Amino acid sequence: MSVVAMLCGIHFWKIVNDFWNCHSKLIKAVELFPGPRTIPLLGNALEFATNPKNAINVMAKFGMEYSTYRLWIGSKLFIIITNPKDIEIVMESPKTSKKAFFYKFMEPVVINSMINGHGPKMRANRKIQEPLINGKCLPFFMETFNKQVRRYINDLNSKLNQEEFDISDESEYCVADMLFETVIGIPGVGQDNGDLTIPHALETALDILFQRIVTPWLHPTFIFNLSKCGREFNAALELGKDRLQQIINEKKQLYMALARGDPGVEEPKPSILDLLIQNVLETNAMNDQEIISDMIAIIVGFYDAVLGIFSFTILMLAIHPDMQDKVREEVAFVIGADDDVVITNIGKLNYTRMAIQETIRLFPVGPFLSREITDDLQIDKYILPKGSTVAMLPLVTHKSPKYWHEPDKFYPERFLPKNSKNRHPFAYVPFSGGSRSCPGSKFGMSCLHVMVAHFIRKYQVMTTMSLEDIKLRTHISVRSLNGYKVSIKNINQL
């Protein structure tokens, strides 16, 4: 026993010694970096842990003061950057291809996915999936988008000439139904029965994930799993995983029956999951765990981004009725009074696209984008040390007067080619960039065009809110703390 105890003691001492040596190197490497004052052991964690939902506002406040700065969350070093030149270097460097350490907190349910994976296997899986998301089935997905949005628009008639309501609350069932049918390949019935089990479970998990990131005493897995939020997190992810596993099993049985030529078996409508399963049955390129992990990534990305961007876009057009009229005139000219939006329309809806882009500029899909630094990396004025985590802060970059004229105003015309030609390409990062860029941006933007076009064509939207009223809270994407309050009138009543 004494030998075992001695060996354990030596091993523990080595772990502590290695950690301290590494930590000391990081402290020395960033001693000239600006940043807020720290306290022993916790660093800057108390700035965030006491109110995680306000974290993005705290980070933005520091970002306005320092173009580049450091934060310590416990023993974890974060370097925050806002300069487009630095963002370009980070996004394009092979030294930053690995996502930040905290994405590992989603294991063991989500493993090596598009959210938290890296390396050859993740890249190979991405090459399989990206064409499925944005490829030849996109025109068919547009049919589903139109069908579900028409249902949603008709249901909104109950809100005509009424008091203000939250457009996000009213839209989430429609977004879920589009997700169910185009991504998972199951009937979209959220607008019938209000079932949002899968997306709500994953949203809960992501809220807790951010709380864990900024709370260093929850970083150790054994402590987190014993906590209330840890139990809720694991339950939410397991719920999503179990439901997806059930759907995958059913679909595999269906496609094997089709291959055998069993009578009475009909081929389902295409969805991203159906296309992926067909590919896997032919190539054996992915196992069920990998499929589940990447489906969770797609579900989270689609549901959260589309719902958030649409809600903010409608609110922006309500605040700016002259720009709302421009979108409406363009939709009427390009699409007509009641036609569906087809894929060939998207490229012609220029002002609509700019309104969505301007919304994303003010309220980024990813308010901060994080990467691990796997080797020292030189940026404009500093060296990012190996072992640190770099976080790009689009919320600050997108609103900096260094890169944008009157950045706090909603002005879609800033995205006209003549107004964009001298702007640094990384001053606007709507869907990340480099090897970790969003694989579903075309898919999501197509859906948003359908939603905005149908909505603005049918309704005049108004609000008592102003741009200055909107307070932001931290989520996987930026959300409005005080909601998205609008009222509507039928366009034919005007």
Order of helices and strands: HHHEEHHHEHHHHHHHHHHEEEEHHHEEEE
Radius of gyration: 24 Å
CATH architecture: Orthogonal Bundle
Distance between the termini: 87 Å
Main location: endoplasmic reticulum
Transmembrane segments: 295-319
GO molecular function: heme binding; iron ion binding; monooxygenase activity; oxidoreductase activity, acting on paired donors, with incorporation or reduction of molecular oxygen
Binding site for heme: 438
What can you tell me about this protein's structure?
The chain has 494 residues and is of the alpha+beta class. It has helices at 2-29, 46-49, 55-65, 84-92, 119-134, 138-155, 167-184, 190-193, 197-213, 221-226, 228-260, 272-283, 288-319, 321-334, 343-346, 350-362, 394-397, 417-420, 441-458; strands at 68-73, 76-81, 165-166, 369-372, 377-378, 383-384, 389-392, 459-462, 472-473, 479-480, 485-490. The protein has a single domain (17-29, 42-493), classed as Orthogonal Bundle (Cytochrome p450), CATH 1.10.630.10. It contains 19 helices and eleven strands. The chain has a four-stranded mixed β-sheet with strand order 1-2-7-4. Strands 3-11-8 form a three-stranded antiparallel β-sheet. β9 and β10 form a beta hairpin. α6 (138-155) runs antiparallel to α7. Its cofactor is heme.
